[in-house]
Amino acid sequence: MRALREYSLQDWARLRPITHAYKTAIYRAETAHYVRRKVEASEALVARLRARNRPTLVVTIAYEAPWVIELQVAAAQRYFKDVEFLVCDNSKRDENAAKIAEICRDAQIEYLRLPSNPKMAGSRSHALAVNWAYRNLVCAAKPACFAFLDHDLIPTAAVSFPDLVEHQPFYGRLRRVDNLWFLWAGFCVFDERYCKAPLLDFSQDWFNGLDTGGANYRRVYRHFDRDTLCFADHVFQDVADPLTGQKVLVDLVDGWIHFNNVGGWNEEKLLEPDLLKRILTSLTSK
């Protein structure tokens, strides 16, 4: 929630600081309860991660879209070097989770299905999933560098994650709301200091207008001068389907291709996988 000094007299008259504090406490309690939930396979997974001791752990949060995980896994195997790539599955449908697990087995990629997520809203569900993976996997494995990715963010070129945080403690796509800022939870990289202890919170901070990952503003980011840091290049681009001519808005994050809503959290704006595959092919074949 906001600092008390940031509430106006009108806010106090409407008891907003009290209601915000109450809702924030519930929100934090829900998160604390969820991240304490156990997954039987997680201990063996952490043991394997520690044994291989690769310098970088990259975690993607899968959600209901096996076809896009297949694309991301193929791209990661092509472009990621000396990286432990892990798929944490936040899917609600068993059939989709089974397909994603099979894709990971075939590609020899680590897979873990996360605890059943109680939240239906896309951002809230995603925040719980990232926080669980951070607390139970990243902080347990303690890599030298780690990153979180959205499942619909497709690498298009080789990347060295340690290089991104060689001269600063974190890197990613910057998001700003007024004077506040945070890194998008779909592309953020951190150095080892943030897994020695659970310092991060990828929850939203809705009363400040901050989406998933925004809670890290008060925990971490506000202590840094934003103007001295480097962030990912980010542009929106309309791309025409080479078959139908339909325009699709995609994000380019450091040249990586990001499709929105492939998991169907917004059913009204869900696009066909074949359409997005054609868009991806047209962008990567240039």
How is this fold's topology laid out?
Layout: H1 9-13, H2 16-35, H3 42-52, E1 56-62, H4 66-79, E2 83-89, H5 94-107, E3 110-113, H6 122-141, E4 145-150, E5 153-154, H7 161-164, E6 170-177, E7 180-191, H8 216-219, E8 234-240, E9 247-253, E10 256-258, H9 273-284
Parallel strand pairs: 1-2, 1-4, 2-3
Antiparallel strand pairs: 4-7, 5-10, 6-7, 8-9, 9-10
Characterise this structure.
This protein is of the alpha/beta class and 286 residues long. The chain has 9 helices and 10 strands. The strands form 2 sheets. The protein has a 6-stranded mixed beta sheet, sandwiched between helices. It has a 4-stranded antiparallel beta sheet with strand order 5-10-9-8. It is globular. It starts with 8 loop residues before the first helix and ends with a helix.
Order of helices and strands: HHHEHEHEHEEHEEHEEEH
Low-confidence stretches: none
Counting DSSP E segments of at least 2 residues, the number of strands comes to 10
Q: How would a crystallographer describe the biggest sheet?
A: 6 strands, mixed
Helical amount: 25-40%
Cα-to-Cα separation, first versus last residue: 46 Å
Q: Report the β-strand fraction as a percent range.
A: 15-25%
Radius of gyration over all CA atoms, rounded: 19 Å
- In the sheet with the most strands, the strands line up as 3-2-1-4-7-6
Structural category is alpha/beta
What overall form do the CA principal axes indicate? globular
Mean pLDDT across all amino acids: 89
- Number of helix segments? 9
